[in-house]
UniProtKB/TrEMBL annotation:
Subcellular location(s) of the protein: Cell membrane
InterPro entries: MetI-like (IPR000515), MetI-like_sf (IPR035906)
Family recorded in the similarity comment: Belongs to the binding-protein-dependent transport system permease family.
Organism: Paenibacillus baimaensis
Signal peptide (residue range): none
Keywords: Cell membrane, Membrane, Transmembrane, Transmembrane helix, Transport
Protein name: Carbohydrate ABC transporter permease
């Protein structure tokens, strides 16, 4: 009888969990499908039907109209440049620093670890950061974006823990064979750390692709603005009643939805290829502190 009651409770609990998961999936997917449907709908249908998942009449005019917009193409190219370059800098500096801090023989290691942890709790703030960037002469330069977000403390700590899990005997044998520290890092440690590298590459890529605040803070030239700033400008012009920008492009609802979808597609395409590394990299990197 007790066994039956236990199984019954487990079944109810499992049913509740699946129900919550289904609701969560619907909450996420329904707006996403609405964006897709709206981007392929005509303006008349968008205005007359309101909410819909399947448009009555399909059209790609919004995408053609958007891709002919020079401002959008420039912003998309800027976002790609920032993401690729910024992610390479992020993962290079983070992995090098994490590898050094993972070695117990490194002098000053305890103080450096404390300083990394300190930055997770206390940040300098917007104004001090701006003043430092200004004094370094990095305003109106992508280097202001790259260097101010070069190393994320959380990513560094987890990657350091991942490097600590690599057997010390493997590194010692490489050193005995005459392998230098830099060669050991590139040819042995990095190949063994691909789950962590891939995981944090994805994190940094998302961070750089979605950069917005630092872009409007450090960049003044509109031609250098990334995609997120362009999307915000599109919404501002729409909310203020200006449906047409300076170049004569009208931002209809379908065009806005198409812009949102195009912005999301690159990350959606990349994620499935890196998903196999994601869970392994996070779990192995959180075993030791």
């Amino acid at each position: 009888m007790n066994t039956f009651d236990s199984r019954g409770k487990d079944s109810v609990f499992t049913g509740i969990i699946y129900g919550l998961l289904i609701v969560s999936v619907l909450v996420i997917l329904v707006p996403f499908f609405y964006v897709i449907a709206s981007s392929f709908a005509t303006e008349h249908e968008f205005m007359s039907r309101g909410f819909f998942i399947i448009p009555h009449e399909w059209t790609i005019e919004a995408y053609g109209y958007l891709l002919s917009n020079a401002n959008f193409k420039a912003a998309f190219g800027n976002a790609v440049t920032i993401t690729v370059t910024g992610t390479l800098i992020n993962i290079l500096l983070t992995s090098l620093m994490a590898y050094g801090l993972s070695k117990s023989w490194l002098r000053g290691r305890r103080m450096m670890n404390f300083l990394v942890l300190f930055t997770m709790i206390f940040a300098g703030g917007m104004i001090p950061t701006y003043l430092v960037v200004k004094e370094l002469g990095l305003l109106n330069s992508y280097w202001a974006l790259y260097l101010t977000t070069a190393i994320a403390p959380f990513n560094l700590i987890v990657m350091r823990s991942f490097f600590q899990n690599i057997p010390a005997e493997l590194e010692e044998s490489a050193r005995i064979d005459g392998c230098s520290e830099l060669r050991l890092f590139w040819q042995i440690v990095i190949p063994l750390s691909m789950p962590a590298i891939a995981t944090f590459t994805l994190f940094y890529a998302v961070q750089n692709w979605n950069t917005y605040f630092y872009a409007i803070l450090f960049l003044n030239n509109s031609a250098d603005m990334p995609l997120q700033v362009f999307l915000r400008q599109m919404l501002i012009e729409s909310d203020s009643g200006m449906e047409v920008d300076a170049g004569g492009f009208a931002y209809t609802p379908a065009v806005k939805m198409a812009a949102v979808l195009i912005t999301a597609v690159p990350l959606l395409v990349i994620y499935p290829f890196m998903q196999k590394y994601f869970n392994k990299g996070m779990l192995m990197g959180s075993v030791k502190g």
